[in-house]
Specification:
About 75% of the residues lie in helices and about 0% in strands. The protein is built from 15 helices and no strands.
């Protein structure tokens, strides 16, 4: 069975054309001066397409768009390991791990409580929405679904909220940094490394975390590396999170018969670490690694474009206000609570 389905080729080429356009636009003088990366431009082009031409486009393109948003995204994140080394991971240190662990745990608890108790949603939709915000967006929602055995439409609701608020985060954080965090004094100021921890510890999707430093003019490599490492720490923590969730559900369910919980691990996170480990050995010449990174940037642009193509505003009308309010509550916590926690943890070391 082929990893690349034949019926997806036309859709992938379609996405690649948009990604090529995004790459070209990002190189135009004033656009480049603004620091807008091809990833950001790609998702904007995708959103414009989704809410204008999508209804008139041939249906056979959709499989390739989906393939780009899922498979190519994960492959691109794996290749992102060539930008990192274990030495980089050591540099982030205990602070990065504590930020990841604290934000994952608190967001999961706050989101589940808000969904079930404050906004009276069902258990599955509440937990799925919380998992998406807590760990790694849509991938976390899909990984949590087998544990809950949730219905498809509940997964769709959770993913919709992740796409909505994750996209908002991707545009908000560069504005926050350039607007007041970079040049502020005292509590509001964050160094590039600490801001990278903040980004990696609070933004939904891995690709969105990659996009934020890329969208900040003159952002340091340290910021980008820290953000991704902290984010991947959150992704890896999905395994123990699902085990704990399964145990809690089994304990709290009166109908539980002690059945085993199926654990779904996002393997792309494991492969990412393996590639970073290989890159740490410095076996590949740096010029070759640079070409890999250029190729990887294009794949990430394709993935972001495809995610944008799935952001159809009309879909959110049927999601329901309660799901929106739950996701909004977590978003506020991630932005403001995450800022305070990141600053507090770094002040201890």
């Amino acid at each position: 069975m082929s990893i690349f389905p034949k019926n997806a080729i036309s859709g992938v080429v379609f996405v690649a054309i948009f990604a090529t356009a995004a790459t070209y636009i990002s190189s135009i003088g004033f656009i480049k001066h603004l620091g807008l990366s091809p990833l950001v431009i790609g998702i904007v082009l995708g959103i414009v397409y989704a809410n204008s031409l999508h209804a008139k486009a041939p249906e056979h393109l959709q499989s390739g768009i989906t393939f780009s948003a899922k498979k190519i995204l994960r492959f691109a994140i794996v290749l992102y390991g060539f930008r990192l080394t274990f030495q980089d991971i050591a540099d982030v240190g205990l602070q990065g791990f504590l930020v990841s662990l604290t934000m994952l745990t608190t967001t999961m608890i706050i989101g589940s409580f808000a969904g079930m108790k404050l906004f009276k949603m069902d258990r599955d939709t509440s937990i799925l929405t919380a998992a998406g915000a807590s760990v790694c967006g849509a991938a976390a929602v899909l990984a949590t679904e087998p544990v809950l055995k949730a219905e498809d439409y509940k997964t769709a609701v959770a993913v919709s909220m992740v796409v909505l608020f994750g996209t908002v985060s991707m545009f908000l954080y560069p504005i926050m940094y350039e607007g007041f965090i970079k040049d502020a004094v005292g509590f509001l100021h964050m160094s590039p490394k600490v801001f990278g921890m903040y980004v990696g510890g609070t933004i939904h999707e891995v690709a969105q975390v990659v996009a934020v430093p890329a969208s900040i003019p003159h952002a340091s490599a340290e910021m980008a590396h820290t953000a991704v490492i902290v984010k991947m720490t959150r992704v890896i923590l999905i395994a123990p999170m699902l085990i704990v969730l399964g145990l809690i559900l089994a304990y709290s369910s009166k109908e539980s018969r002690g059945g085993r919980v199926k654990l779904v691990i996002p393997w792309f996170a494991v492969y990412f670490i393996a590639v970073a480990g290989f890159n740490s050995l410095n076996l590949i010449p740096k010029n070759i690694v640079n070409y890999i990174n250029i190729f990887d940037t294009f794949l990430l642009t394709m993935a972001m474009t495809a995610l944008g193509m799935g952001t159809i505003f009309s879909k959110f009308k049927g999601v329901g206000a309660n799901a929106f309010y739950t996701a909004l509550t977590m978003f506020i916590w991630l932005v403001f609570g995450g800022f305070i926690i990141t600053k507090a943890i770094n002040s201890l070391f």
